[in-house]
Amino acid sequence: MIRMLKWLSVVASLGMVFVLIGGALVTKTDSGMGCGASWPLCEGQLFPSEITPELVIELSHRLVSGIMGVVVLALSILSWIFLGHIREVKFLAFMSSFFLILQALIGAGAVIWNQSDFMMATHFGISLISFATIFLLMLLIFEIDTKFDAPSLIIQKKHRVEIYAITVYTMIVVYTGALVRHVEANLVCGSWPFCNNNAPLSFSNYSVDQWIQMGHRLAAAVLLIWTIVLAIKLIRQYRSNRIMFWGWITTASLITLQVFFGAMIIFTMLDLGIALMHALVISIYFAMLSYFVLLSSRSAKYEKG
Asked: Which range has the worst mean pLDDT, 34-38, 180-184, 186-190?
């Protein structure tokens, strides 16, 4: 059964990557209404008569999401039954299914009721949490902690608080990035890193969309600097621990790559491949942060008792 759970967790994790990328593809190609105001059927039909590129993208995303819903639900139930004795398994099993269902409902609501840009910007964040919970569940099933030196790791309280804070802040940055796309503000600033590199401090003529774009860039810059500074601090503090050493090198590398892809979106005039990589990298980055949140919660428990 453990072997089956391992395979199931890998399929679920990889499948959720396709769900994330598929959702980003739907948004970036404006295919959200590719099936009309109909859900879960497309144009109210099981087999639509008129096929368009937008319909194919939207319907493919729905099919992958539906299949992954079944896979994640099976993974959650079996993990609860056979690995429920592991401290975090039941919580992650519940959360993975809950957020996947919530993600589907918000997507359905967007199709049927045409929700606002501000509401739709939360959709990607919820997808991110769903992916992270499934990713953590996979790590627990593969016993990554026991294969490395996580059991001996005790993270100090001041570092735990900062890990919690940067994870919450990341969700805010993700929201601002999703909002940029949903209000179609990706290319309202022709330069990078400033909206206008010839007059970087000229703010008086900024439109609302430009403020949204530059607000996201500022938030992303803060996240980049914060992550690198925190990584250096934690690597020095826990240099003998492989999980912390290599984990934070990976995390700092991911956020650097994320900012690079964000800049390339502007330079390539919204190249679709670059935009999808931008969504993928932030998903992996957030999953890494979530793992450190899990390790921090364990350290807090050890301190108490």
From this structure: 34-38
Count of CB atoms situated within 10 Å of the CB of 2: 12
Q: What is the distance between the alpha carbons of residues 270 and 272, in angstroms, rounded to a whole number?
A: 6
Q: Is the dihedral of CA 177, 183, 184, 185 positive or negative?
A: negative
Give this prediction's pTM: 0.91
Contacts for 236 with CB less than 8 Å, ≥ 6 apart: none
Tell me whether residue 58 is one of the annotated catalytic residues: yes
For residue 2, CA distances in Å to 10, 127, 186 come to 12, 26, 45
Q: For tokens 């099933």, name the residue.
A: 141
Number of Cβ atoms within 10 Å of the Cβ of 164: 16
Give dist(CA 15, CA 18) in Å, integer. Answer: 5
- Estimate the crossing angle of helix 53-83 against helix 2-28, to 10 degrees: 150
Q: Is the peptide bond before 40 cis (omega within 30 degrees of 0)?
A: yes
The active-site residue out of 43, 50, 54, 58 is 58
Report how far Cα 50 is from the mean position of its chain's Cα atoms.
33
Q: Are 130 and 99 in contact (CB under 8 A)?
A: yes
Which pLDDT tens digit goes with each residue over 247-280?
A: 999 999 999 999 999 999 999 988 999 999 999 9
Q: What average pLDDT does range 287-298 have in this prediction?
A: 94
Enumerate the domain spans of the chain.
1-142, 149-305
How far apart CA 1 and CA 223 sit, in angstroms, is: 41
